Amino acid sequence: MTPVFKLHKIIKRYGQREVLHIEEINIHGQKICAILGPNGSGKTTLMRIMGLLTRNDTGTVNILGEDIHWGKEQLLKLRRQMTMVTQTSFMFEGNVYDNVAYGLKIRRMPERGIRAAVEKSLELLGMSAFIAADARNLSGGERQKVAIARALAVEPRVLFLDEPTANIDPQSAVEIERHVRFINRELGTTIILVTHNLFQARRLADEVFFMWDGKMVERGSAKDIFEQPQDERTRSFLSGETVF
Ligand SMILES: Nc1ncnc2c1ncn2[C@@H]1O[C@H](COP(=O)(O)OP(=O)(O)OP(=O)(O)O)[C@@H](O)[C@H]1O
Ligand SMILES: [Mg+2]
Fold it and tell me: Which of 105, 137, 165, 167 has the most CB atoms in a 10 Å sphere around its CB?
């Protein structure tokens, strides 16, 4: 099977500083992959390159079998198959319906299809009752659920979650995890998750990447990484010995 992501010898610099240097990453479809590592280790940068939002300086990116040449049409086509939810999601002015419908409107879906997709997506996140609520008055956790519903409404092949439950109470976080798992299993969505919640990574991920100083120092099944980390840095990070 063609991997969803194939990254080879990726380097990203800001000014003189090399913030990412990845030899090789292959991610196959329909998996939940967690990217772990300390602040500043390059997790978001890596995710943004995979989502075609930040351009790498050297190396090659292949997504869904296509070599990325960063041409406008290719970017548009592939970006439409991927959506991203960040830690603090932006809500547009208007109600929850408008916010969830947003991606479908720009994809020019007919209005009737949009309503059905929005309703389905909100239902999946347990947020149907909020459909007419003003999006800006929602609580942090509710916003996050709406943001995930918005991302899902377009039925992406890939969903990027960058610390999606960082501001969320434990009960709602567990609920969101349940939805993430459901989406992955039932819709076959590939999920790339960045989290500082190690328990969450362990509960959700099929595969874990551990980043350190721009490099991927270890990768493996969640079980192997959490139970038998091979790299000293992974071991100390997971045991909480590393102080940042
Ligand atoms: N646009 C930018 N301009 C300059 N430096 C940047 C930019 N984006 C990221 N960096 C730097 O690149 C490094 C990696 O940042 P990145 O956001 O990928 O880290 P991260 O692993 O996501 O960290 P965190 O856990 O804090 O979110 C950091 O040192 C950061 O300061
Ligand atoms: Mg980050």
Answer: 165
